[in-house]
Amino acid sequence: MSSLRRYLVTVLIALFTLISFLAALQSYRQSASRAEALFDQDLQVLASSLAQQYQAGSQQELGLALQVWQNNQLVYRSPLAPETPMSETAGFSEHNFAGKRWRVFHQTPTALLTVIVAQPLQQRQQLADEVITASIYPVVLSLPLQALLIWLVVSKALSPIKRFSAQLASKKANDLTPVELEQVPAELDQMLKTTNLLFTRLAEAFEREKRFASDVAHELRTPLSVLQVNLHNASQQWQQSGIADPQGSMLALRAGVERMSALIEQIMLLNRTNPEHFQARTEQLDLAGLCRQVVADWYPQIEKKQQQIELIGLEHLSLKGDAFALRLLVSNLVGNASKYTQAGGAIQLELTTHAEKAVLTVQDNGPGIAPEEYSRVFDRFYRVGGDRHQSGTLGSGLGLAIVRDIVNLHQGQVRLGASDSLSGLKVTVELPL
Q1: Rounded to two decimals, what is the model's pTM?
Q2: Of the options 3.30.70, 1.20.1050, 1.10.287, 1.10.3470, the CATH number for the domain spanning 171-279
């Protein structure tokens, strides 16, 4: 198929020409048949008139009225004609008699001979309607056939575009392979090449981004590990040498290194859970059991801050999802709740179901978040109050961004709100079962 335009124009013109010719031919045949019937009727009237004049047959009602006058004497009239003149003036006129309206033609061939012929107007109108109907009827009947043929031709011509659209719609988020079509028309060829070129460039860009984030994190991990070891050794030597640190420089340096290390880990996790890069391994898992594992992982820190944590609701909640991603989601929510809740505070996890969805709710009695900040805290590197968060806890601003990406991977929803029972923040995550 070289061109959709050429194919459509050629085929549609050919179809319209053929159908119009067939409709005109049928109209001609019906009109000719009706005209032939009219001419035959005229012959019958003439024959009947002559037969009656020469006493060769009986009178017949053929729809016309005929009078022949000679020396002002009626020498012949057809059965429908009255005994009085149907018209007094020469030429065409209209008159009423015999209960009908007639079209009358008055002719005087000689001074002594007058011929008057009349035809009912209703019959003339009916004849005109029949002729018009005979002409239009085939055209009207051909319209559905034309519409059907146009639909078939256009559907066939647009089938490459439909296949192209279907392939694009069936592609997954991480599928950037080129689209392949057979018999690509000229109008679609450039679009196909441009789309495949865009896929190639996107694949290269994503690969560069993945390599960049991985390489940067890997390259930073090694010097940070060396720095942490050296800081530990230096701190031990200071203590052994009795060197005082009234400004807390060593503690601040150690906190900065720990923060940078946590930031690198969060960046790697964010890159790994990005929906455009993540290769999900969906399996049937128990979300309640996963939450218990996460609580056990965080319990040493929670106990250190003398916080209370409880898991209520369903003891088992089965759903399909990626175990690594969902565990990271719960870990971020519990970790945030513990970090930003004061010592001796309370944290509550609740598992329920609603409308074919698993619902995980994490609440705390910490300071919470102002409603106007709800939409912004999911942005990467955004923290309420910046680095000077009122809790004094260091953070990277990536935890809720990772949570949002994981929720999107599972086609779920995440909402923030005020806690109903603990007066702090409430995070609600809904995931399809």
Answers
A1: 0.49
A2: 1.10.287
